[in-house]
């Protein structure tokens, strides 16, 4: 019979927790920014928000997910990170 007693400690920093939150949000929620933009275009009966990129629409057609991520980043910073730093 083998009896092994192993113990270890996990050390993490605040930065790693914040990076995990951003990673989870970017993976699961930010893509819905594209769906939100699609819904707005569908209601407005517009194919693309612009024609800067030719067949691919305008710049905002490519950055709609980034817009949602930017809003989340700002709110997260104001609510969580700035309060932790004090």
From TrEMBL:
It catalyses: a 1,2-diacyl-sn-glycero-3-phosphate + CTP + H(+) = a CDP-1,2-diacyl-sn-glycerol + diphosphate. Keywords: Lipid biosynthesis, Lipid metabolism, Membrane, Nucleotidyltransferase, Phospholipid biosynthesis, Phospholipid metabolism, Transferase, Transmembrane, Transmembrane helix. The keyword Transmembrane helix applies. Belongs to the CDS family. InterPro entries: PC_trans (IPR000374), PC_Trfase_euk (IPR016720). It is a multi-pass membrane protein. The keyword Nucleotide-binding does not apply. This is Phosphatidate cytidylyltransferase. It comes from the Eukaryota. Its main location: membrane. Its EC number is 2.7.7.41. It is found in: Membrane. The chain crosses the membrane at residues 15-37. GO terms for cellular component: endoplasmic reticulum membrane. One of its GO terms (biological process) is CDP-diacylglycerol biosynthetic process. One of its GO terms (molecular function) is phosphatidate cytidylyltransferase activity.
